[in-house]
Structures are given as C-alpha cells and as structure tokens.
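Title: [Solved] NB-ARC domain-containing protein 3D structure

Original question kept below for reference.
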Amino acid sequence: TTRECEHWIAKVGEIENQMKIIEHKYNAEKKCLHGWCPDIFSRIALGERVLEMINHIKDLHEQSKFEGGFVTDLPPARVEKQPIPTLTAKTSADCTLEKVVNSIRDGMTQKIGIWGMGGVGKTTVMQLLNNTSTDGVLTFF
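Solution (posted by the thread starter after getting help):
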C-alpha cells in the first residue's frame, strides 16, 4: 500500500478506538441507579462528541479517494534469456543485431523499428537483443 493509504488506515484505527470508548461510556451512562437516570448535561456532551466523530468519519471517507491508488506499481519484470538457435557463422541477424546495439549505445537514437517479410529473422534479432541486454550494458529506460 502507499504511505498515504497507510496513514489513512491508521487514522481509521484511531477513530474506531475513540468510537469504542464513546460506546462504552454510553452503555455505562444509560443505566439507571435507584430510579435516577443519567445526567442530561452529560448526555448532551456525549451527543456532541458523537456528532464530532461523525464529522471526522465523513472527512476520512472523503480522504479515502486516493489520487495515486491504493498500491504502488510493481517494478518492471526482469529480462529473461530466450532460447535461440546457435549460430556458427556470422549471419544477417548478427549484422542487424550489431546495428541495433550500436544505435542504442550512441544515445542519439530514440526509436528503432525492425520489420520485414516473415522468416527473415526479426524474432531472432529481438531474442538476441534481449539476451544481449541482460549483461547490464544496454539500458532502455
């Protein structure tokens, strides 16, 4: 949960405790002793305290609309190596990968697009790039 949410939950706990105290006081005062019922002034004070608590509860309810949400985002998923066919000779996929890596490292390139007909090795290039990036040399963010 976010800190804002945790703080709100703590406030709700405080209000719950205060309401239990008020309820206990009400239950203790509602009993009559030898025909004498509770003092009207203490009942008025108790009623005012209840109204005050109701206003606190309304405020807490309004504060429950968290702008950032209830939980923080998960960190980005870890890049995992993908199985690719082993390449013995330098292929066009290796040449394309080298161009892509150089473009990423130069810092000037903002977007890279890899396209082509089916079967030319786009997926292989991306898998090679994915596996190359796990060594910590390439940063995409």
